[in-house]
Design brief:
single chain; alpha/beta; TIM Barrel; four-stranded parallel β-sheet; three-stranded parallel β-sheet; about 45% helix
Length: about 450
């Protein structure tokens, strides 16, 4: 485990200064639905003491099951999820940690995969979509397949819809500017910038929900280095870690408000990589101190703002886990969980990318390292079989996979609960269009 907590405490303190003490403004300062500090009396821990007992040194403390976790679901939802997955077969458990890829535009194909392989869900790309009616048919079929598989919580139906050129629903959902616009807006006027960024994320999330999605693979928390960065570029909010932290924190709160699971990416930061992980495994030679100062502040802000999920990058971080993709390195998961305090769902970047191509069992390596969800393996059915066989042989512990699957179930329970409390407004498209225009105006 990395012993870097003292320096990360300073990072966290800096993030609190720029995104907390500075205030989010009157219109964006209300607590997020997942903010642990947002609860009323019903969500506070309940403490009860037994009668005085000479042999008892401490009173018994009971936690109210309605108490929110630091990442969204309640304590009770997480406990229920743990109990549920403990009853699953190896086939169900293996499926519960995979977000599959599929080919073509037939709505029944992803539905079949979810039903037969018990998948947590699927990721939708631009190659899978035709028009609004087809998207609705597809997401509806996936939801029905999960219900037919005996689940009373929604499946993961995710999409890359960052704004700018990484928008897989182009022509179907409202177009937003690159996330760089959020950083520019914050830099121009921090209070207004956070407000329009939160509104953009909220309306994006609501519009995605209207199309049947439950996850969005955004926001990008990478701090770019500019022209030498071939992969992230304008997808990044800023070259300034403190500006990026404010934009990311506001976006997470907006997605939470919308009742959609956001995915902060690509931990611990892809903005300094000078090669494209879609093609090869980039080597990042930044020192640990440089990573802490340059890359971690936006992720620390996301954790503080109750981010439900974080995506791990495919990077060779020579100062942390040389020669191993970050998504498959236990040391990187330790950095996220033990040092930044993240307790939510960890998901790999796509396992079909060139950075991890050629590795014999990337899915198992990622699960063993600490991943909770395996995103888009090259062959979903084969990956499912490999995980099933590893569970049955003991090559991977059932405890590790149950831990992962329980987090996924719990966050889906949270998504369903918040979505039920926040119906999609009839004029969601008009609201999204206005939010997009406001973000662009604030940036330029």
């Amino acid at each position: 485990m990395l012993q870097i907590r003292p320096r990360l405490a300073a990072v966290a303190a800096g993030v609190l200064l720029v995104s907390g003490c500075a205030g989010l403004g009157a219109s964006d300062d209300r607590p997020s639905s997942t903010d642990p500090s947002a609860g009323s009396g019903s969500s506070s821990p309940a403490t009860s003491s037994s009668p005085a007992d000479p042999g008892a040194s401490e009173p018994t403390e009971e936690v109210d099951p309605d108490t929110p976790t630091s990442w969204g679901p309640t304590v009770g939802e997480l406990e229920d999820a743990r109990e549920l997955v403990s009853t699953w077969t190896s086939e169900q458990l293996a499926g519960g940690v995979i977000v599959g890829r599929f080919h073509g535009t037939d709505p029944q194909e992803p539905a079949r995969m979810v039903r037969e392989l018990h998948l947590a869900g699927v990721s939708v790309t631009g190659d899978n979509v035709v028009d609004r009616a087809q998207v609705l048919a597809m997401t509806g079929a996936v939801a029905r397949a999960a219900a037919a598989d005996g689940r009373d919580f929604p499946p993961v139906v995710g999409v890359d819809q960052e704004g700018g050129y990484v928008s897989h629903l182009r022509g179907i959902a409202t177009e937003f500017p690159h996330f760089q616009s959020a950083g520019l807006a914050v830099q121009a006027d921090a209070r207004l910038g956070r407000r329009v960024t939160r509104a953009a994320a909220e309306t994006t999330g609501l519009e995605l929900r209207s199309l049947g999605f439950t996850w969005v693979f955004a926001p990008v928390a990478d701090v770019t280095i500019g022209a030498a960065d071939p992969t992230i570029g304008a997808r990044s909010p800023s070259t300034d870690p403190s500006v990026a932290a404010q934009a990311v924190g506001a976006a997470v709160k907006g997605y939470d408000d919308a009742g959609i699971v956001s995915t902060v990416k690509h931990f611990p930061g892809h903005g300094t990589a000078t090669a494209d992980s879609h093609d090869t495994l980039p080597v990042v030679d930044s020192s640990l101190a440089e990573i802490e100062a340059h890359d971690l502040p936006p992720f620390a802000a996301a954790v503080r703002h109750a981010a439900p999920a974080v995506m791990l990058s495919h990077l060779d971080l020579t100062a942390i886990a040389p020669g191993v993709p970050a998504s498959m390195a236990p040391e990187v998961y330790d950095l996220l969980r033990d040092d930044l305090g993240f307790e939510g769902v960890t998901i790999t970047d796509s396992l079909g990318m060139g950075a991890v191509g050629g590795r014999p069992t990337p899915a198992l390596q990622a699960l063993e390292a600490g991943a909770d969800l395996l995103l888009m393996p090259v062959d979903t059915a084969t990956t499912h079989r490999i995980v099933v066989e590893a569970l049955q042989s003991g090559d991977i512990s059932r405890e590790r996979v149950e831990e992962a699957a329980a987090r996924v179930v719990a966050v889906q329970e949270w998504q369903a609960r918040v979505a039920a409390r926040r119906p999609v407004p009839a004029d969601v498209v008009e609201r999204a269009q206005a939010a997009s225009a406001n973000l662009e105006s604030a940036a330029y």
